Amino acid sequence: MTFFSDQKAKLSGLFAPSVQSFARKLPLPRAEKTEMVEDDNPNITYRDMQERLQIPVHVTTPDQIEGDKAREFGLYMARQDRWDELADQIRAHDTARLTTPSGVSLAELMAFGARSDVVRAAEHALLHGKPAHDSDFFSGIEALESILLDNPDCYATALIVAHMHIDIGWAWRGAHGDDSLGDVNREAFAAHFDRARDILAAFPPSDHESAALSAARCALLPGKVDPGAHLIREFESLINLDPMNPRHMRALGNYLLPRWYGTYQAVDLEARRTAARTYQDWGAGAYAWVWFDALLVDPDGFDLLETEYFLDGIEDILMRRPDQHTANLLAAHLFQSWQITRARYHQTGLRPDLPPALRRGFERVVHDHLRELHPLIWGHAEIGFENTARIISTERLAEKGKETALAAVAMPFLKALQEGYTVRFEADGINQIQR
Fold first, then answer.
1. Cα atoms found within 13 Å of the Cα of residue 229, Cβ hemisphere only
2. Which domain holds residue 155?
């Protein structure tokens, strides 16, 4: 079965469709609530005192704006067939290690935008596990392959095409377990990952000092026969190339969970090793970053967490990243961790120190660092940052995040609010005013 074309002979003498012309056929995507406060007085919620808890709420954040701008730039350049200019921008942003405030590579976002028409067509065609009879997404794949054939030495173009195959491979595979995966879907997943691997083999990350190429090699791991044998080496190389980007460390911890390719002991070991290697950059921060997503995705990891080391890491991160995106990210994580461990260890009596320590860490971040709310971060924290099993619209997730955030932030000030104080968050601090 032929899943895509990768040979120039197959395209010679034929008109290779441009991505611009292919995009004209695509349908436009269609855009597509919960409450909780619990403390010493469960009858009081932030809703009862909402007017007296005054904190700016930013539904749209600089992180989202920068990310959308980079994706739209990549999409626009692809639809205009301005591949040389796009490749120059991807290389420049990759070399400078430019990211959004959350650490998402702008080079990778441009590459995502450039392939998004083709990937979206594939996902639409494969919605039911196989292409519709009238689907034509293969022409989009061939269009991008032809661009790579015309630019065989351009690693930026190779990144776009390789990631296209990785994305489409996942579209074929879906979220099914191995036992329920059909032969055609499994073969297509393997074929697309093999093609991506062949493309990237010509561009060793060390030759180009490219974090984007190294990250792409990590993205190929699920297609390997024994991913665990390569995981630590590939991520160590990536983190060494780009130590200031925490998303690499977060991804490492997630992949080391038992549900993927590791164990809780492996997460803790690599958290400590990564913290030692990056101490000059992050202090103890890497210990917290490696555990970060893993804890919310799989709370069994709390059994092994070294609490003080983790909280020291949180403090070291905030010393180096005192922006409001990071403050929201860490506050949301600590709040969810506190709620999870309070429920988890209440019955067993195990780890009695952990929930109150996490609560103190959460309140310290709120008092010392948090000055505005980014609801989408809080919404993502509630379902686990790397949990792709649950799908919710961005609007609903932001609304849910706003309610959770307001409820959470009210907790450290509940007594003052009950006594009639107004709590006002301002850029230079928090004021409690009695009226």
1. 4
2. 81-223
